[in-house]
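Researcher: I'm comparing several assemblies side by side, and this is the next one on my list. It has 475 residues spread over two chains. Same procedure as the others: predict the full complex and return the structure.
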Amino acid sequence: MRPDPWLSGRERSDTRRARTTLVLAVLTAVTVMTLDAGTGDRSPVEPVRAAVGEVFGPVQSAASKVTDPVVDAVDALGDLGGLRADNERLEVEVARLRAELATGQVARNRLAQYDALAGVTEGSGFELVAARVVAMGPAQAFTRTATIDAGSGDGVEPDMTVVEAGGLVGRVLRTDRHTATVLLVVDAESFVGGRLGRSMELGFLQGSGDLGDDGLLAMDLVDPTVVPAAGDTVVTWGSRGGAPYVSGVPVGQVVDVQSSAGDQSVTTSIAPFADMSSLDLVGVVVGAGPGSRSELSRVPPGGGS
Amino acid sequence: MVLLRAAACAVLIVLTITVQVGLFAHLSIAGVVPDLVLLLVVGAALARGPSYGAGLGLVAGLAIDLAPPADGVAGRWALALAVAGFLAGLVRGEARQSVVATVATVAVTSFAASSLYALSGLVLREPGVTISRALEVMPIAVGYDVALTPLVVPLAVVAFRRLDPAPVRW
């Protein structure tokens, strides 16, 4: 066989060795999948996952602190793009003012976010831990998850409710000391018990798993004869002990109702109030107020977006 | 020295994953972010060959599978990136010859890796994985990876050549 002119002798022997490496690597990956699949929380991979999380969590939080000002600055530059038509003097002036404003604006927005976040749970007795989203799962992973910079050290535990100023965000899947992984309500694996604001009817909301920014939730009503009205608000139904979801948190709004005459089923689409594509400040409900379960019928504060 | 090289390698993987899920979450196109770890693995395979590529792909893939915010069955990115590293290493003689060849290598391995990841999800019946969704995501993912190739792959090649205990002259 004619030797490949581009490869040295060492590289040719490496190619033979590489087949063995590939087989070993594939076997390792398949073994990990076999061990992890279908075992849920008792998976032998879970302790390893926790250990890796302890390493990555602080790094992600720290990286987010470094990149946040950069992202804000890029956003500010994007706003400037619209002023191209103006003359140069104005542009320079705007740039100078904009630079001055950029930091103050971000600070004011953050303050407004904290205020709104406090408003979601005002009077409900929920105790919140504020956190920032430091990482999001990519669409090519087919899941909708996020990392937040509050963990078990801040009192966050698995199956706690996560809210945003707009409404329900999701629930905590797992925690390490400094960070926690959140399953967003739009993930295909997410199920939330919900109650329609007007008719008080109960149903289950499932994430569509849509990867774009316009993820909707599908609501299956317990009573199939009910046809919800578009624009009706859905709040969480709540679970025993407030885990994984406390009751009375606004989830979203009915945007589409499709009834099929054939099997008399009704498909209701819910648009979540929380903007999943630009999650920043969120709150984890670490303590449900007294009587949160008896307050199922209570109209939630801030029921609109 | 072996430990030092392994540590440097681990730091590279951790940093790349952090940038991919952190900073690039702000720069996603329809939720898709560039697979920087794949570019790192391809760069390593071009510098060091298919055996190293497959090994690094396995380790880096496992790290993605286990690091937050990943959820679901672990080992899927590990499988996809091990194969990608092996493939890139196999063609490294040609891929090193021109920018176009390098970009083509990234496009092929990116397609192979995202297909394998989607396929393993279908086989394991992971929620949310459907063929139509995979077809929707893959062109964006491959395109984004190709766009970032000139920025990331040369850096990765240089980094992994420096980590080589016995560099080849070429």
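Model: For your comparison table: The first helix of chain A runs from residue 9 to 36.
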